[in-house]
Design a protein that fits this description.
By secondary structure, this protein is an alpha/beta fold. The chain is built from 30 helices and 34 strands. Helix 18 packs across helix 20.
């Protein structure tokens, strides 16, 4: 079949993908060598996209309640309820909550309807949770939300500073670019992160600063540059507005003590920055997801402005986004704090947008940001909400509050490609959306590069594009201006709006694309607006053309609270994405981290009675959840780390969204997910075990369970108290072989149908559970031995690969260690040449490097 060039639906790197359909719901996936963002590279998630495009769990027809209906009936219901709510309670009583998973064309139509026709600013997006602090920092400093760097700058930098970014895991293709720069240019790398991540393991210098002390660190570096005459006086005079009180307002404090790092490490950072003028500071969620995230962003920008390290090759403050189209949403006004096309809410801008849209009304100002929106729902102020392509019942901070809000809202609409999510259970109307591989439109990546996303599979069932459903509702509400024949019409309109009465006042100007015809839209090659460095040859987007230095102060350390409680940090795993509705379908991606782990320092584990591999309950003032314990020296003492991915559909534990507070940045409204006071206590079950099944089982009736996909079925970890025999109800019908030792609390059972294994259950009140991998593989074996199944191992033991390190080639830790020892391998490249590990996406290369270092030190 014909290969189709499209883009990856995961992070903001914006990698090009070539998908070649092999059947109606399958395809081979490879990186696009012609796409400038990745030049053929893909991470593990992108590599295994082909495992996620089946129809498992898909929403295929519109639903009103539990009843399937035709599109006309569903759309009429949405339009009439929204119209009636507005008529009775006003436009601010309704809201849209969108997603960085949406295409730019979808976002554009949603924003136009809400702000330009309904007349309220109440449209926000899950991007509020991941990068809105960077937006606010850009606007304060530059006058416009413009990322002033490109990936080219990483290639040209002599120093790269990663702040709050586990790049090797979360943006692996960018990490490969950093690795290449280090190899070819000798580029130095500094990682600033409370955790010693796999990214930090590879750095020339790792600063494990205390949570939320970034402003103190960068203010201190700025003062050091001033004291040692390293500022760029000419650049400051010509291109930067520095308030008279700016230098007086910078707090002078003991930076090393405040940040909790050694003085010699701090000085080493100062020296590296001073000695390498070509510096890129790349920052991500560790900066943004904070109650002081905007100030952190401006502290970084201040440093680059004052030293003239911006608008030049290899230099600049670089915010890298988490979602594939967070940038596209920012461009069209998907955030409640912007109007459209990088315009704000001044009278002139509102008038300009209304005249362009020819709309009956225009919103009077900004709408409710995400957390405020859900609080307004909980209080009954928002009475109708349309949620598109996101799962806020899991992802919002204090997710319990978000669920209360959804339950209290009289009318909830959910557009999604997945039928059953934690959010969808609250919907009165569910609309089947297109998934990746079926959509047509555009996305914008972290370096402002616009690429086409193209469908290569037919829409299944009654699934339709989000823009189409929004436009149909708009027309049913009596609004003109929504008669789009396809996404090309919407793109042309958006491009025209960016240039409408712009006259060079905004850097975002796509008006050259406004006359593009359908054929050219279909074949559109990736292009980057603003060039490699938007502010190299043009003024900043302010009235006088100068950037602004923003005085920011460090957050005070809450030492009294820190003495009594731990600090909870949250984040992503390498091979999973958001709430796993896509990556959870891949058996390959599910093997890297099968359970939600709470990572703790050994001293913290000892002082709290925790055991590596045991269970523990993490609690905050908002909620609690159970995790598997992983003891790790990568954690700071008294800090905890948990992943964000698990939901009610995948685990009874690991519910991280229940834990963070709704405290948020006063400028951006972004919640602080990275620094929540918490406690941890051991959870000691009376028994534990696991269940392997060919079909996905029902949720077990026990205290702890978590389920993941395997190559031939499902693996469910279980633990609880009381009678363990209750879990035998999860076994499917078939011929059952059992071994039960009531005295030791041991249950072993296997269910076969014909010559095939359909399920196996292992439970014990003590140690002695067998490894999972061999048993899981027997689901696909021919005529497995019942004796071997009950023993939990083959008669001739297979080699133990250890935990999976390289998911692309299915290589375990023990396999890598054996190869290093037996073949005397001394480099990551040598390991790759010998056993392939690390030669595809590269995200496991830091782990391989760590294993090499471990073996060398042992030798």
């Amino acid at each position: 079949m014909t290969p189709v060039k499209t883009t990856c639906p995961y992070c903001g790197v914006g990698c090009g993908v070539i998908a070649t359909p092999t059947a109606s719901r399958s395809a081979t996936i490879k990186g696009d060598p012609d796409h400038p963002a990745n030049v053929g590279r893909l991470c593990s998630k992108g590599t295994h996209l082909g495992e996620t495009i089946g129809l498992d769990g898909r929403l295929l027809v519109p639903m009103i309640g539990a009843k399937p209906v035709q599109w006309d009936e569903a759309l009429d219901r949405v339009a009439s309820r929204f119209a009636a709510t507005i008529a009775e309670h006003g436009p601010d009583s309704v809201a849209f909550y969108a997603s960085g998973q949406m295409l730019t064309e979808d976002y554009y139509v949603a924003n136009k309807l809400m702000k330009g026709f309904i007349g309220t600013g109440n449209i926000d997006t899950n991007s509020r949770l991941c990068m809105s602090s960077a937006v606010a920092a850009h606007v304060r400093a530059f006058g416009e939300d413009v990322v002033p760097c490109s990936y080219d700058d990483l290639d040209a930098a002599d120093l790269i500073v990663l702040v709050g970014s586990n790049t090797a895991w979360c943006h692996p293709v960018v990490w490969q670019r950093i690795e290449a720069a280090r190899k070819t240019r000798g580029t130095k790398l500094v990682v600033i992160d409370p955790r010693r991540t796999e990214t930090a393991e590879c750095a020339d210098l790792h600063l494990a600063i205390a949570p939320d002390t970034d402003v103190a660190l960068f203010n201190g570096l700025l003062l050091e540059m001033r004291a040692t005459w390293r500022l760029d006086g000419r650049f400051l005079a010509e291109r930067v507005d520095v308030p008279e009180s700016f230098w007086k307002d910078l707090a002078r404090l003991d930076v090393a003590k405040t940040c909790g790092i050694a003085g010699e490490d701090l000085q080493a950072f100062y020296d590296l920055f001073a000695d390498h003028p070509r510096t890129v500071t790349l920052f991500s969620q560790g900066v943004n997801q904070s109650t002081s995230g905007t100030d952190k962003g401006n502290a970084i920008i201040n440093l680059h402005l004052a030293t003239g390290r911006i608008g030049k090759p290899g230099a600049g403050p670089f915010s890298i986004t988490g979602q594939p189209n967070a940038m596209g949403g920012r461009e069209v006004g998907g955030l409640a704090s912007t109007l459209a096309a990088h315009m704000g809410f001044s009278d002139a801008e509102r008038d300009r947008a209304q005249r362009f849209w020819r709309s009956p009304k225009i919103c009077p100002g900004p709408g409710l940001k995400a957390v405020d929106m859900f609080e307004a729902m909980a209080k009954g102020k928002i009475k109708a909400v349309w949620i598109m392509a996101t799962n806020p019942a899991v992802s919002m901070p204090d997710a319990r509050m978000a669920r209360v809000a959804l339950a209290n809202c009289p009318f909830v609409v959910v557009s999604d490609c997945i039928a059953n999510t934690d959010t969808a259970v609250y919907a009165q109307v569910k609309l089947p959306a297109l998934a990746w591989g079926e959509k047509h439109g555009t996305v914008t990546n972290s370096e402002r590069r616009i690429s086409r996303q193209r469908g290569f599979m037919a829409a299944p069932g009654e699934a339709r594009a989000d823009w189409w459903a929004i436009a149909e509702v708009a027309k049913r509400m009596g609004f003109d201006g929504f008669d789009y024949a396809g996404p090309a019409d919407i793109f042309r309109e958006f491009a025209a709006q960016t240039g409408f009465e712009n006259h060079g006042t905004r850097a975002l100007d796509l008006s050259a694309q406004a006359a593009i015809d359908n054929a050219a839209y279909d074949t559109m090659a990736p292009f980057r607006w603003g060039g490699a460095s938007p502010y190299e040859h043009r003024p900043f987007t302010t009235a006088d053309g100068k950037a602004r230095m923003i005085a920011v102060r460090p957050m005070p350390r809450d030492d009294a609270t820190r003495a009594l409680r731990l600090r909870l940090n949250t984040g992503r795993y390498r091979d999973q994405w958001h709430t796993m509705t896509r990556t959870g379908l891949s058996p390959t991606l599910s093997q890297h981290r099968r359970e939600p782990l709470v990572e703790v320092h050994p001293e913290t584990a000892q002082s709290h009675g925790l055991v590596d591999g045991g269970l523990a309950r993490v609690a905050t003032q908002h909620g609690s959840s159970v995790y598997r314990v992983a003891v790790s020296t990568a954690q700071r003492r008294r800090d905890l780390f948990v992943p964000i991915h698990w939901t009610d559909h995948t685990s009874s534990g690991g519910r991280t969204g229940l834990l963070p507070s709704t405290l948020r940045d006063p400028h951006s409204g972004q919640p602080g997910f990275k620094n929540t006071p918490a406690t941890i206590t051991p959870y000691k079950p009376e028994w534990s075990g696991f269940l392997i099944t060919r079909e996905r089982p029902s949720a077990p009736d026990c205290a702890y369970w978590t389920v993941v996909r395997t190559a031939h079925g499902w693996l469910t970890e279980i633990a609880g108290r009381g009678d363990a025999a209750v879990v035998t109800a999860l076994l499917p019908p078939g011929e059952r072989a059992e071994m039960i030792d009531a005295r030791r609390g041991v249950i072993r059972a296997a269910v076969t149908v014909g010559d095939a294994l359909y399920a196996a259950l292992f439970v014990s009140r003590g140690p002695g559970l067998p490894p999972r991998d061999w048993l899981a593989a027997q689901l696909g074996a021919d005529d497995p031995s019942v004796t071997e199944l009950l023993a939990g191992r083959p008669a001739a033991p297979a080699p133990d690969r250890g935990p999976i390190v390289c998911v692309c080639f299915d290589v375990g830790m023990k396999t890598i260690l054996a190869a290093i020892t037996e073949r005397a391998l001394v480099s990551v490249e040598a390991v790759g040449a010998a056993i392939n590990a690390g030669t595809n996406c590269g995200s496991c290369r830091p782990a391989i490097a760590k294993l090499l270092l471990k073996e060398v030190s042992h030798a």
